[in-house]
Each structure stands twice: as structure tokens, then as C-alpha cells.
Amino acid sequence: MVDLKGEDEDSIDAALTQQVNTENSSKEDKLETAGDPENPIKRQEPAPKSEQKPNYLKIIIIVSIIVLAVILLAALILSAVMLLKDKEESRILDKGANIKEAKIADEKTAYVTLSDSVDLTKLQEVEIVFSDDKNNDYAYSSSQISQQYEITPSAIGLGSFENITSVSASFTFKSTPAPSVNNTNTTNNTFVMCTDSCTSLGKTCGNWSICNKSVSCGNCSSGVCNSTGQCPVSCSDECANEGLSCQGSMRYNCSVGTDRCLHRTNLTACGTEETCSNGACVAVAECSSNSTCFSNTSFTNICSIGFCNSASKCQAIYNSSAQICRNNVSECDMASSCTASSGTCPANINKTDGTTCSLGFCKQGKCAACLSDSNCSADGCNGTEYRDYFCNSTNSCQYNIITKEENLTNGNCEDRIDNDCDGLNDTAGDPGCAVPICGNNIKEGTEACDGADLAGKTCADFECGNGCIIECLTDCSDYDIIWCPDILPSMSPFARFWEWVKNLF
Predict the structure, then answer these.
(1) For the whole prediction, is pTM greater than 0.85?
(2) What is the pLDDT of residues 374-410, one digit of tens each?
(3) Is 44 left (phi over 0), alpha (psi -120 to 50) or beta?
(4) Under CATH, what is the fold of the domain 90-173?
């Protein structure tokens, strides 16, 4: 007999196993299909993280590009800032004679270029003169001949070029003899007389100037002949004497006062390629018409006009001393006139102190009052300016020579002001200041007691019967008669003493 039961169980087990395998296979296919839609048959497994490598080359290239861009941008910004800074801190100076270009950088360095027309081979020394906004000159001299110069402020005695506005140059030429000088001077060593005369307008006087018909000028070997027919003698040193006129071929001019030379270096004559104009040696300018010279500031100034002479060279005509170049600003200030030998206007000059003016007398260029007894009166000085000079009379003045303080208490012997102008500060011991006296028993304004009003006598000389002197009360309200029994016989000594005590307070 066959055992069917055992065979059935084996068949069932095999069938179950096959079914389980079929289900598992179906699940795996679904997972593969979900992981890779393009390939439903096989799922692509991602690569392990350990196998993924970064692209370092790409990173390096990107970083390098960024760094280079930043460096380039910074360089462009820095260049722009430097250009702007250079533009802001550099300025061009006004060009004078023999200057092609002049620039100040950062107010600390001057770059000066000489004119191309200058023959450097003939120069022995170069003098570069800087002028400030107040017409002060500062000279730099160098025997190192060059077309360009770099100059610092310390080289001309300054701390900065801040106020410098213009620059010019003049030269000393090689092997040029100085002109002869006539040393027959007047007592002030300033002028010698010319020996001949100009016969017509336009005749040169010496080599430098032009005479008027009415002016007697000579052939001055030392330089220019002025309007009075005199030849200024060349200075022996630099601005040695105030008012000394250093004209002719000399490179400086002392005519405007102590240490006010146009050129501070004492040099010899101008060279053959130069001419003396307005106190300085300048290069001779070629010309074909007067307009060329008129526009040249080396020849045309407030007291001179440039013209083209017969040799086609620029030359200066100086205005006569009758020509006013600066008007007076007050009655104690003098108008300035040209010198007939310089293109510049002389410095301002005040009238001598003590010169009579509308308010009294001139003092330091102003009209002052109370400068003498004639302008003092009992009620004070009669003027409004400078009231603190020379009051020396018995009249009281608002201001006086002792204290120079305003006298608000006229006649007060204790104000320490010289009210009576006797040269002493007023105190009780000043013999010119009287002790206050009683008058009408009224103190009027700021005055002291002002007159006698007791039996025709003042309290200072009224004697009581016992020989005592009656004095004023301190407020000038009454007489102090408490010690006079002849006047007040009924007052007891104790009452008099009590009145005296009360008067003290």
C-alpha cells in the first residue's frame, strides 16, 4: 500500500517554498524598477561616499580669478587717489622774467624751469626770486647752472611755500667787468651831479633811462640819471642805509627803506645779455614794436613804461618824481611819488610827528588831539583820537602823559591821575592839587566842595576863637564846627565828641 500522506506533505512543502521565492523575486524587481526608471530590469547602486573626489583644480582657478580681480581693482583705486591728490596739492606759480614754468608741490617743493631762451653756457650764477602775496621777496642763489631747479622752503628761509605767488630769475654772467663808478659824492653818499644835459626828449641818460626835455641829465657812467639831474651811486653793500638809491646796473634796490631790497644779494653789474630794469637785471628782450615791451612786467610797472628802442631792444621809461603813484589816506599820511629811476612806488611815509592837523598834531600817521597845551581846556581834551600825549599845563585833560587813563573825576586829588598836568600823579601831597574846600554846602555832580560860604572864608582858613581850623565834613554837606566853642558855645565837650564820632560814620 502506498503511503500517499507522506508524498502529499512533501509536495505541499515544495509548493510553498516555490511560492515564497516567487514573491521575493517580484519584490526585488519592484525595488529595482523604482530605483532606476530607465532600466526596470536592474537597479543602479550609488557609488560609496569614499569613492567621490572633489575637483581641486576647478576650485584653485576660481579662487585665483577672484584674487586677481581684487588686486586689479585696488590698484585702480590707488592710482585714482594718487592722481587726485597730486592734482589737489600742486599749483602753478605766476611766471616772471626768465621763467618757463614754476610749480609748487605739496607746499614743500618748488620745481622751477628757466626759459629756453637763456644760454646756460654763459651763466656764472642763477638767482631765483620768489614773491609772496605781500610783495616780499625771497632769493635763492646757485652757482650750479641747470635748466631746472628743485628748491625747498628752507633754502629761502621759509617753512612753507604757502604764501608764495610768483617767481622770477636773474643771472650773473661769466667774466663781465663792473661799470666804473664816480665816487665824488654828496655828504650823504647818495648822489653825484651829472656833468652834461639832455638836449631833447628821448636822449638816453647813461645806458638805462630817458630824460624829459626840462630835466638836466648827464651821461652817468654809474647808471641812471634821475629827474633832478643827479646820478645815483651804486651801493657799496646791501641796503646799508635807509633811503639809499641803488640804481643803474646794480641788481638790488634800497630806495624803499631798510631791508626792503628787491634783490637781496649784492652782485656786480648786469651782463652783456641783460639790462637793469626796475631794480633787477633782466634778459634783454627783443622787440619790433612798443606793445611787446609794454606788456612785459619787467619794464612796465606803476612808475615805468616799456618801449622798444632804436636797437630793437625793450627799455623802460621811468615816470618823473611829480607823478603820484600812491594817494595819501589821511591828513597825516604823505602821498608817494615815483622816483624817476625805479618802476616801483616807494613805501608809504607818514608826516613827521607833531605836524599840525585838524584835531591837533600828527602822531604815527594819525591826527591826534591833546598833543600840546593849546588843545587842552578845563573840561578835557577837545579831540577824539590819541588823547594821551604831552599835556603839561594847568588844564585838566581826559588823558595825560602820566597814567594815560581817562580822567573821570576831574579835580580829585586821590585818583592818581595827573589832572593839573604838572607831571605828578595827583595825591593829597601833590602841590598842584588843592585840598577840597567847602562852598555852598552842596556837592554838585562829581565836584568837590566848590567855594567859600561862611563869613566870606573857606573852612580851610576859618579860625575859631581857640585857634582851631574849621574843616569840611567828609560828604561836603556842612562845616565841622564841633570843636569851635565860639560858634557853638552851648555845646558841651561830650556833645562835641559825640558829634565828632557820628561824623566819622
Answers:
(1) no
(2) 444 443 444 333 333 334 344 444 443 334 344 444 4
(3) beta
(4) Immunoglobulin-like (2.60.40)
